[in-house]
């Protein structure tokens, strides 16, 4: 999980506790204070809503080259509140759209399914999971497409905190240019200036090996 704050309240689900409690309760500890039980907080309820797929009213069919096309169900109101692009897509200028079926369906193009899923899940939970750098880039592009700026910033922070080495400087620099990440581009530029000989040697070695 990326982006959790150490300053937030520490939670322990009942499934992880030896104490007898209901499934919906949570044991909590606020900086070592009294331990008690309370219902799941807002983010936990939204995560449950997202994971269970209960009461969904929109279905997305992601046209990303996978057969059959993967589908993802969600709740219009939650997506519209977090993204102006989703608000325009799902509601347009009308506050209600009673002429559509109970579950509306939309086809999403030019976005990978995992990246689109990351955007939707982030709007529910404020959390995002990255398996590799390619998925981060795809997620950032999808977040820009649907105008979810906090997720764009999260992706940029992921790359800006990464370590730059002589063998990765050139590719990271190009990625920063392609994705308009100015701070990362400046970091790479400074690193290349300070390690020009090593970077050029590795780039030349790569080009020479590739030409064989």
From TrEMBL:
It comes from the Eukaryota. SMART domains: BTB (SM00225). Residues 56-132 form the BTB domain. Pfam families: BTB (PF00651). This is BTB domain-containing protein. Residues 16-39 are annotated as: Disordered. InterPro entries: BTB/POZ_dom, SKP1/BTB/POZ_sf. GO terms for cellular component: cytosol. GO terms for biological process: neurogenesis. Coiled coil: none annotated. The lineage of its organism: Eukaryota, Metazoa, Ecdysozoa, Arthropoda, Chelicerata.
């Amino acid at each position: 999980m990326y982006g959790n704050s150490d300053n937030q309240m520490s939670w322990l689900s009942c499934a992880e506790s030896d104490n007898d409690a209901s499934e919906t309760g949570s044991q909590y500890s606020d900086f070592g204070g009294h331990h008690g039980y309370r219902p799941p907080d807002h983010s936990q309820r939204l995560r449950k809503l997202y994971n269970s797929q209960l009461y969904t009213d929109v279905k997305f069919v992601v046209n990303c080259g996978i057969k059959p096309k993967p589908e993802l169900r969600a709740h219009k109101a939650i997506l519209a509140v977090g993204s102006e692009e989703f608000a325009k897509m799902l509601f347009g200028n009308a506050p209600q759209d009673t002429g559509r079926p109970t579950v509306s369906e939309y086809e999403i193009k030019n976005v990978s399914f995992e990246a689109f899923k990351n955007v939707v899940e982030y709007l529910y939970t404020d959390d995002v999971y990255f398996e590799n750098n390619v998925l981060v880039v795809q997620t950032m592009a999808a977040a820009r497409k649907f105008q979810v700026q906090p997720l764009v910033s999260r992706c940029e922070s992921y790359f800006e905190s990464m370590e730059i080495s002589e063998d990765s400087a050139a590719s990271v620099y190009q990625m920063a240019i392609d994705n308009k990440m100015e701070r990362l581009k400046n970091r790479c530029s400074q690193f290349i200036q300070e390690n020009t000989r090593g970077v050029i040697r590795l780039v030349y070695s790569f080009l020479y090996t590739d030409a064989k």
